[in-house]
Amino acid sequence: MHVDGFRFDEGSILSRGIDGKPMEYAPVLWSIELSDILADTKIIAEPWDAAGLYQVGNFPGYRWAVWNGQYRDTIRSFVKGDKGIIGAVASRIAGSQDIFSEPGQRPINGINFITCHDGFTLNDLVSYNEKHNKINGENNRDGLNYNSSWNHGVEGETRDTEIQELRARQIKNFLTILFFSQGVPMLLAGDEARRTQQGNNNAYCQDNEITWFNWELLEKHADLLRFVKHLIAFRKEHPGVRRERFFTGITDRHGKKDIEWHGCQLVSPGWDDSNSRVLAFTIWASDEVTDIHVMMNMDFARLDFEIPVPARGKVWKRIIDTAIVSPDDILPEDQAAIIAESSYGLEAHSVVVLVAMKCSASI
After folding, report:
1. Where in the sequence of the chain do the CATH 2.60.40.1180 domains occur?
2. Does residue 113 surpass a pLDDT of 90?
3. What is the per-residue pLDDT across 204-213, written as a single tens digit (0 to 9) for each?
4. Rounded distance between C-alpha atoms, residue 259 and residue 283, angstroms
5. 157 catalytic per annotation
6. Which residue out of 46, 258, 299, 329 is catalytically annotated?
7. Looking at 4, 9, 33, 118, which residue is catalytic?
């Protein structure tokens, strides 16, 4: 039937015995784990259940991938502007090795996501502070009360152009961070065209315009659709953002680590800075592969970020700046501008991505 795999809703319930207690070797889970028929099938679990069992990082089995709820919560808080969580942000971007620490686990064990079919859509995440579920008939008591969302000044739709521009930028920030994180990115269908549920974060019971997909959004938000397509294409072409193994910190023959963390100043990420809202990192690759430098400013002010010296024979080119208007917000590498300066000014709430490429004769 051409099914790539299966995702198990509230998968943790399958690890419970007849007494309701979790089992270390649950027969159903291990039968799936060891099945020859399912050997080439993607197996994904929502690693929690309605009774409170939470198994992100310790879900039974080794080949299971699981929804990383901690990725969602941390990145939402970071982009919203919460301060002092830089260490947690770095861990999530690097593939959550602190969570997936069991022998044999790899970055692909974690499914990174910002939004899913439960909760706010990405558009609503940047448009509402509160859930608006009265239409569901439960007096707004259903659905999560805490969503780490931010309406950017007005609840719901607005004609304020500054708020509109900031919301659009924040959506691009979320998507850029997601696609430049180690692990498997999961994109909620419709987020690429800013589908809204009008603030409803528990809309499973609605079979109407609240949950239907409006195909006109593809044209209305063609700029965002283009942005997402370029993100997907970049990730497919660059193994540095989808490593099979976790970073080790080991230096290569050029003295470069596989990843270096920074703040506004190089190699000064500010792990202990309780006021920091910024983070940058460099993924150093081999001579033949593209180096990648990502700078993230979730502060409320424009800040200058130092840029590392590119590897010998390479130049930095800016492929993404979420503060720039489309189509220059994301560009193919052969069209991207060379950045020769030693620093780059990031607008408030923006993400910039540079790639280091070998100099050509035309440069």
Report:
1. 248-358
2. yes
3. 999 999 999 9
4. 5
5. no
6. 46
7. 9
Question: Which tokens go with 157?
Answer: 């739709």
| Structure-token match 């003295």, residue found | 255
List, for residues 72-97, the tens digit of each pLDDT value.
999 999 999 999 999 999 999 999 99
Residue 321 · residue 311 · CB < 8 Å: no
Closest CA to 44 of 186, 254, 200: 186
Q: Class of the 248-358 domain?
A: mainly beta
Residue 359's CB: how many other CB atoms inside 10 A? 12
CATH architecture of 5-237: Alpha-Beta Barrel (3.20)
**pLDDT band at residue 329 under the 50/70/90 scheme:** very high
Alpha helices in 151-242 (DSSP H): 161-179, 217-220, 222-237
Q: Are 355 and 290 a contacting pair, CB within 8 Å?
A: yes
Taking the CA atoms of residue 179, residue 151, residue 164 and residue 213 in that order, the dihedral angle to the nearest 10 degrees is 60
Say whether 9 is catalytic: yes
